[in-house]
Each structure stands twice: as structure tokens, then as C-alpha cells.
Design brief:
alpha+beta; Diaminopimelate Epimerase, Chain A, domain 1; 2 domains; 6 helices
């Protein structure tokens, strides 16, 4: 039978903004090669593959067009949104996902969806040789999360104007780079961008996983456990953050923009 697939814009209340994710609703686990082909065909930063378990929870995996990833925020938000929208999950029920990063949850919070993710604060680190030149950025802080270099620039305008040399970034062997600065207006507390040429994505529009590092970092600097982050990509998107111990709560909205069916089915 055909496999239902949806495209959802996450971390936005407006279609064609935020970060688009595909969600492929599976009745049973699928072959990894097939899932990677689907993700490459969709050509979005991530495609999510949830499978309902016998206990009512969901197994969840995420693929970029090039690789499988261990954590993805916007595609998790998109998955919860479409499970509720299609009735595969009752509207008042919590979405529980078993993933490579442990059990993740999503709850309705007014007109937003709130994700519960592990915090991943950066630790001070020397930048890989050539990284700052490839970014064209003067750094006031350089650190590293469990996966990526983390750079604070001296002002938000530098983050917004950054034009990395993606060929050089790919040659450095890093998966991605988180770039951030304190916001210069009252609409958010900090701004960020995320470049991931090592995962097949030059720039991710709005990155939930990056906010697992951004939220605790800015919480310490600004002295608040509630923050608003704005990811200043061309599409742009807002992430409402709460730091709760070693967890972060990331909240945003989502809009369905496409409904369809995939053929052939996984074998």
C-alpha cells in the first residue's frame, strides 16, 4: 500500500517560513537504504520516519539527504504535529518518541508544541584550524558541543551577515557549526545560524538540536531559564526555550503544507 507522507513547516505559524520537514508515517520499520533514498528524494534538511509501537509510543528516526542523524528538533516537532492532526495520536495525548538520543516527548502548550530534549551545552575549545576564516567571523567565544563547534560572534549583525565558504567548511571535517550572538532588539534574546555542510546541508533554516546548546549557554550568560531564540536564516524561525536542569524545553508552532503518498512502499 502507498505510504502517507507530509511536509510541515516547523517553528513558524506561517507557511513557507521556519524549517520544512518531511514526515513519512510507517506501519512497520523500513529498510535504512530505502529511508535514505526517500530523504534524498525529499531533499529537505530532515525527513522523519515514525513507527507506532505496541505500547502506543513511537520509534523515530531522522535522515538528511546524505546521512542519518541522532537528534533533530524541527522534524520531531513536525512529527508530533502531524500525528495529532491525522488522529494517529489523540489530541490531548503526549507524543513519546524512542530515538538514538533517548526518549523524547512532545506536548501541546497552548498554540505551541513543546519538546523535551537533553541539554548539550558547549565547553570551551580551540576552533579547528581555518574555521573562523571559513566563517568570516571574529569570535568572542569558541566552544564545542558533543557534536559541533559553537561560536559566539561579537554582535548579531555579524551573525545575520555571515557568508561562509562552504567548500572550506566541508574540508575541515566538521559536521556543523553553531553561530550565535546576543540579540540587538527586543524580539528575541539571542540570534543564531547553523551551517552543516558535513551532513549535506549548507544552512539549516531553524535547528532545534542546536538550541539544546544555545539555550543553556545563553541561560548562563543572561541569567534566565526562559529565553527566545531567533534563527536568522533566509526563512527564519523562533524557538521558545526553557532550561530545566539537564533538559531543555523547545517550543514552537507548525503548519502542514503538503499531503501525499509515497510509491513504491518499503520492502
Amino acid at each position: 500500500m502507498p505510504v502517507p507522507i507530509y511536509q510541515i513547516d516547523a517553528f513558524t505559524e506561517t507557511a513557507f517560513r521556519g524549517n520544512p520537514a518531511a514526515v513519512c508515517l510507517l506501519d512497520a520499520p523500513a529498510d535504512e537504504i530505502w529511508m535514505q533514498h526517500v530523504a534524498a528524494e525529499m531533499n529537505l534538511s530532515e525527513t522523519a520516519f515514525p513507527v507506532c509501537r505496541s505500547d502506543g509510543d513511537f520509534d523515530l528516526r531522522w535522515f538528511t539527504p546524505a546521512v542519518e542523524v541522532d537528534l533533530c528538533g524541527h522534524a520531531t516537532l513536525a512529527t508530533a504535529h502531524i500525528l495529532w492532526e491525522t488522529g494517529r495520536l489523540e489530541s490531548a495525548a503526549q507524543a513519546r518518541f524512542h530515538t538514538a538520543s533517548g526518549i523524547l516527548t512532545a506536548d501541546r502548550a497552548g498554540d505551541r508544541i513543546e519538546l523535551d530534549f537533553p541539554a548539550n551545552p558547549p565547553k570551551p575549545s580551540e576552533p579547528p584550524a581555518g574555521l573562523l576564516d571559513a566563517l568570516g567571523i571574529a569570535a568572542v567565544y569558541v566552544g564545542r558541543t558533543s557534536a559541533d563547534p559553537f561560536i559566539e560572534a561579537d554582535h548579531a549583525a555579524a551573525v545575520r551577515a555571515a557568508s561562509p565558504d562552504f567548500r572550506r567548511l566541508r574540508q575541515l571535517g566538521v559536521r556543523g557549526v553553531i553561530l550565535t550572538a546576543r540579540s540587538e532588539d527586543g524580539s528575541s534574546d539571542f540570534v543564531s545560524r547553523f551551517f552543516a555542510p558535513g551532513a549535506g546541508i549548507d544552512e539549516d533554516p531553524v535547528t532545534g538540536a542546536a538550541h539544546c546548546a544555545l539555550a543553556p549557554y545563553w541561560s548562563d550568560k543572561l541569567g534566565s531559564d526562559r529565553l527566545v531564540g531567533y534563527q536568522a536564516s533566509a526563512r527564519g524561525g523562533t524557538v521558545h526555550c526553557r532550561v530545566v536542569g539537564d533538559r531543555v524545553r523547545l517550543a514552537g508552532q507548525a503548519v502542514t503544507v503538503l499531503r501525499g503518498e509515497l510509491v513504491p512502499v518499503p520492502s
